[in-house]
Amino acid sequence: MKNFLIFIFSICSIFCQKHDVYQGLSLPRLQKLQSVLSDYIKEKQICGMSVMIARHGKIVHFEQQGVAEVDGHHMQDNTIFRIYSMSKLITSVAVMILHEEAKFQLYDPVSKFIPEFKKLKVFVAKTKDGIQVEDMKREPTIRDLLTHTSGLTYGYFATSPVDKMYVDANILDRNTSLKGFITKLTKFPLKHQPGSKWEYSISTDVLGYLVEVISGQSFDEFLRNRIFTPLEMKDTDFFVPQEKLGRFTALYTMKDKKPQIFDTRQGFFSKQPKFLSGGGGLVSTANDYMNFCTMFLQKGRFKNKQILGRKTVEFMMTNQLSSAQLPFGTNRDMWGYGFGIGGAVVMDSTKANTIISNGSFQWAGAASTFYTIDPKEDLVALLFTQMLPFSNELGEKFRTLVYQTIAE
Predict the structure, then answer these.
(1) Which residues have CB under 8 Å from 295's CB, separation 6+?
(2) Disulfide check for 111: which of 2, 117, 154, 224 has CB 3.0–4.6 Å away?
(3) CA pseudo-torsion sign 218, 222, 223, 224
(4) Residue 131: its pLDDT value, please?
(5) Distance from C-alpha of 199 to C-alpha of 370, rounded to nearest angstrom
(6) Residue 229 CB: number of other CB atoms within 10 A?
(7) Could you tell me if 205 and 278 are in contact, meaning their C-beta atoms sit under 8 angstroms apart?
(8) CA 146, 152, 158 angle in degrees (round to 5)?
(9) DSSP per-residue letters across 382-397
(10) Mind listing the pLDDT tens digit for each residue in 197-250?
(11) Rounded to an integer, what is the distance from CA 196 to the centroid of its chain?
C-alpha cells in the first residue's frame, strides 16, 4: 500500500510539473513576467502593452494590459502600434530579397543606383567660416547602408554640425517623396568616412529608395507584394486607414511624471505619407510582427512560402562589424554585441551582461517596442508599448523576464 501511494504521488508530481510547463516555458514564471510588467502600468510609466512569446512554433503567451488611449479603449489582441525602428529589419529583408535575385552585390557602391552619392564630401571640422570637408576615401556601399557604417547620421544626437544640418532641413519630412529626400540629403557632407565607424542613421531610409530604383515598384508596393501579403501581415503599413483607426493606439510621453498624449490616433499616421520611411515609418500589430519574426526561425519560410533563403537569414543574423567598429551603440557602448543586417546580435552574453543566448537577434522601436529572435532556444519575444522617451531599461527587464521562464 505504501509503495502504491508513493507511485501515485510520483505520477501526480510528474503530471503537475508537465502542466506547469508549455513548450519548455514555465507557466508560473510567465505570470511573474506579467506581474512585473503590470507594475509599469500601475505606476503609470506606460499606459498599455501587448506581450507575445512563441516557442517551437507555438504561441505560449499572448496578453494585453492597460489602455490604447486614455478615453478608455483597452488594448486588444489586434491593436495597431507605431513600430518605428523595428521597420528597419523589414526594409533590410526587402533589400536582401533583391540581393538574392542578383540585382546587386553587397559591395556595390550606392552611386551605381543612386548617382547623387558619387561625389559626397566628408565633414572634418568646424571652422570660424563654416565647416571643413574632405573627399571620400571610398564610396559608401550597399553593405554600409545595411550596417549603419555609411557615414550618414540621424541628426538627433547633435555631436557635429552635420547633425544640425539634418535637423534644420527636417531631413525626414513626411511630406517629401523618397526622391526628394535623396536630393535634400546629398546636399550635406557625410559625418564620417564610409566604413570607418558604426553610427545609427537614416541609411535604412536610403535603402527604401534603393528598393524603388532596383525593383521598379514603389516601396510600399514592393513590401506589400513580397513581404506583407505572403507573411499575412494584414495590418502592417505606412499609415492606418480610417476603418482601422479604432484599433490604433495613441502615443504617450511623460510630463510631470504623468503620461500625456503625444500623438493621437488621428495624428501623423492616420494619413498616407509621401515619405515612406524604411527606417521608422511602419505601423504593425503583435500578430503581424510575430509572423515576420517566425520566418527567421523557420530559415526564411512561412507556412509553404519561402521568403528568404536559409543562408541569407543566417547571414543577416551574423555580426557584420569589424573589431575596429566595435563596440557600437547609440547612447552607450553595447559590449558583447555585434550588428547584423537590421539588428543587433549577441556575440558574448558574458560581456553583454545578459542571460540571452549567443546568436540571438534583437532591436527596438522609439516608442519602446522590442523584439528578440533566438534560434538556439527557438524563441521569439515581443513587447509592444507606445511611450516616449524610449526605455532601454524596460527592454532589458523584459528580455531577462522572458529568459527566466525557460524551464526545458
Answers:
(1) 231, 301, 302, 307, 308
(2) 117
(3) positive
(4) 94
(5) 20
(6) 12
(7) yes
(8) 130
(9) EEE--EES--HHHHHH
(10) 999 999 999 999 999 999 999 999 999 999 999 999 999 999 999 999 999 999
(11) 24
Q: For 367-402, what is each residue's pLDDT tens digit? A: 999 999 999 999 999 999 999 999 999 999 999 999
Helix (H) or strand (E) holding 366: none
Contact 300, 312 (CB under 8 A): yes
What number of CA atoms fall less than 13 Å from residue 61's CA on the CB side? 28
Measure the CA–CA gap between 85 and 172, rounded to whole angstroms.
13
Query: In terms of DSSP bridges, do strands 344-346 and 361-365 run parallel, antiparallel, or are they unpaired?
Result: antiparallel
Three-state SS at 346: strand
Beta strands in 10-47 (DSSP E): 21-22, 25-26
Selection from 246, 256, 251, 285 nearest residue 77 by Cα: 285
Q: Which of 363, 366, 300, 315 is nearest to 337 (CA)?
A: 363
SS (H, E, C) 258-294: EEEEEECCCCHHHCCCCCCCCCCCCEECHHHHHHHHH
